[in-house]
Amino acid sequence: MNLLHFSETKEVTTLAIIVDSTWGLVVIRIEISAVLLSMSSAGISIGSEMSGGVEDVVVDRVHIWGSRRGVRIKTSIGRGGYVKNILYTNLTLHNVKMGIVIKTDYGDHPDSGFDPQAFPQVANISFHGVFGSKVMYPVVMAGSQEVFITGIEIMNMNVSTTNMKKNAFQCSYLQGKVVGHVFPSPCKELVRQIKVTRETTHIVTQ
Predict the structure, then answer these.
(1) What pLDDT, in 10s, does the model give residues 67-96?
(2) b/e code 146-180 from CB counts within 10 Å (16+ = b)
């Protein structure tokens, strides 16, 4: 698929942006930029139809408010396919329950004919510049033993939360890193990387 670009939408309050891949098709090179979104479910959602794959998606300068979820990737065993090489930059969230959501146990299937051995791949998902306020859970990322999430990167995040508990980040079965200033404190599954010089990088575990 050639480049698909959503840009400079003033305000969307009745329809979220949803990216799906069905019937084995591969969806590549999507750009979403300069969009204001308010939606009861999720502002921007990738999945859950993943029989093909979604890759090389850039989401830039998006403001989401008044939604249950900000940005979401959802899939499950039996859907197969992949989601990889997704970049979110300059993301603003306000008054949402869950800011960033990745779920690999979405569960719903159209019928009983799905392949229980079709394991989806979720890899190389980056968030560069995430800001917001009144967010209950800034990050909820749930992989599984069968669908392990890899290559998560969160760089420069400052989101105030309505949840004062320590587990503002909820993570399981994933691998990744955080870079720069990240608030609230990230989960232990995300390794803190501090760039000292162009040639030297220190890794500090949580």
Answers:
(1) 899 999 988 887 778 899 999 999 999 999
(2) ebbbebbbbbbbebebeeeeeebbebeebebbbbe
